[in-house]
Amino acid sequence: MSELSRTGISLEQDLLAGFDKLIARRGYKNRSEALRDLIREALLTEEVDSNQPVVGTLTLVYDHHVPNLSQKLTEVQHHAGAMVLAATHVHLDHHYCLEVIIMKGRSKVIRETADHMLAMRGVDLGKLVLTNSGAALHGEEHSHD
Ligand code: NI
Questions:
Q1: Which stretch of DSSP H or E encloses residue 46?
Q2: Cα of 75 from ligand 1 centre, angstroms
Q3: pTM
Q4: Cα 65 to averaged position of ligand 1 atoms, centre (Å)
Q5: Ligand 1 centroid, distance to 108 Cα (angstroms)
Q6: How far is the CA of 124 from the centre of ligand 1 (A)?
Q7: What distance in angstroms lies between residue 98's CA and the mean position of ligand 1's atoms?
């Protein structure tokens, strides 16, 4: 993490009161941490919109009795190759499977791959969440030191 800088902002009282309620509901200890997260979220949205490298977590719920569906989902992931970092499969019940697929790459390609799988017949629920390590948001390479 880089060094902290202090800044002051001016807000209408109503807006600040609404913000304080929001951060209390979400369990933030102070305004600074809540503001930092909001800014990170805005920067991430920009990265995703500009096709920057991100990490995507795709959750799928599908009926494995639909013919060829499992194979088709596997084929898409093999085609995506190194972009797929990991996949986890859970047999939810007699019919339904839950799959979580973690991908790394350009946001546009991840989104296309996810949309392709989500649109398949038999895939009943699903959601793609795009995020990143936060390194780019801090303007530095990520390290675990
Ligand atoms: Ni299953």
A1: helix 31-49
A2: 16
A3: 0.77
A4: 10
A5: 28
A6: 14
A7: 7
Q: Is 49 exposed, middle or buried (0-12, 13-18, 19+ CB in 10 A)?
A: exposed
pLDDT for position 1: 63
Helix axes 13-26, 31-49, angle to 10 degrees: 90
Q: Which residues sit with Cβ closer than 5 angstroms to ligand 1, an ion?
A: 91, 97
Specify the pLDDT at position 60: 97
Sorted by where each starts, the structural domains of the chain and their CATH numbers stand as 13-49 (1.10.1220.10), 53-131 (3.30.70.1150)
State the residue for tokens 């085609």: 79
Kindly tell me if the per-residue pLDDT of 137 is higher than 90: no
Cα radius of gyration (the chain): 20
Distances (CA, A) of 126 to 97, 114, 119: 11, 9, 10
